[in-house]
Design a protein that fits this description.
This protein is mostly helical. 59% of the residues lie in helices and 6% in strands. The protein contains eleven helices and four strands, in the order E-H-H-E-H-E-E-H-H-H-H-H-H-H-H. A two-stranded antiparallel ribbon has the order 1-2. It is rod-shaped and about 150 Å long.
């Protein structure tokens, strides 16, 4: 929500004329939780500005400027920034007036149900780019109507007395606008610093938790790398030459075992031929199976 057509100072406005003091529109989450209609929110902002009107520094909208001139009567105005004293002064006397942290607003429209109490909290800070600040600096006027209409005696006094000159320069609308802008930026910086300090303890706690989780993660990652290396060693296909060597070794062991079994049977007297043949064939079949596998691997190279 933006105040259009003027540059003004108010504790609810930032230097871009965005409304920052009304909490329900400060974020999407707060807007959803406020359970307000758009018309009710606009009404409350307008009503607050009616009760505490902003201090108008300059009118930027041409139509609004012509309307103001018609209401204040004909007058000759210089080219450049003008001081619009016809608007009611602000109760804030400048940008970012200090106020309580919480302000309760309870307004009701004619013929409608009262709008629920809304806590207005000035905690929203907007980041302003340098070019946006530059755009708010008033241009150098090409002429000064007050100097043009000043009697020669007063003009001579202004030129001769430095204190009178400084007082005159300080009363111009451009200088006032720059002072308001400077004060607004300083106040915004102070508020931003205070808001950061409020979360200092919370941020330190979060940083400590993150550091603890990081150390735990490093420990888990070391354990993971160790287990992953073991998995790779187990599941990695063996080298072909090593496999052939292992099969040949196992083949020899099976052959020697079958021969020892046959010699032992002969030396024991050769009883129970059926059992001997069955066990001998099992060991001998294992020998031929390993020999065949080794031969197939050798042929595949």
């Amino acid at each position: 929500m933006t105040l259009h057509g003027v540059r003004a100072s108010h504790n609810w406005l930032d230097i871009r004329m965005k409304v920052i003091g009304y909490a329900p529109i400060s974020s999407d989450q707060r807007w959803r939780s406020a359970n307000l209609k758009l018309g009710d929110a606009v009404y409350q902002v307008i009503h607050h500005f009616q009760l505490t009107p902003p201090s108008i520094l300059d009118i930027t909208d041409d139509n609004l400027k012509r309307l103001q001139e018609s209401l204040s009567g004909p007058s000759t105005r210089p080219t450049g920034p003008t001081n619009n004293n016809q608007f009611p002064p602000s109760a804030s006397d400048g940008f970012q007036r200090p106020n309580n942290d919480y302000t309760h607003v309870n307004n009701s429209r004619q013929g409608n149900q009262p709008v629920q109490n809304v806590i207005v909290e000035e905690k929203v800070n907007y980041e302003v780019e340098d070019y946006e600040v530059d755009a708010l600096i008033p241009p150098i006027p090409s002429s000064f109507l007050k100097i043009d209409n000043m009697p020669m005696s007063e003009l001579k006094q202004v030129m001769d007395d430095r204190a009178v000159l400084e007082s005159f320069v300080g009363s111009t609308s451009g200088v006032k606008t720059l002072k308001e802008l400077k004060q607004s930026i300083e106040t915004s910086n102070v508020n931003a610093a205070k808001a950061n300090l409020v979360h200092e303890g919370e941020m330190e706690g979060v940083c400590s938790e993150v550091e603890s989780l990081k150390q735990d993660l490093d420990s888990k990652m070391q354990q993971y790398r160790k287990l992953d290396a073991e998995r790779v060693a187990i599941t990695h296909p063996p080298d072909l030459q090593e496999a052939i060597g292992e099969l040949n070794k196992a083949k020899k062991n099976a052959y020697r075992e079958s021969e020892e079994f046959a010699d032992g049977w002969v030396e024991s007297g050769g009883e129970n031929v059926s059992d001997f043949v069955k066990k001998f064939m099992e060991v001998r079949l294992l020998y031929h199976t390993r020999a065949a596998k080794a031969e197939r691997l050798e042929n595949s190279m």
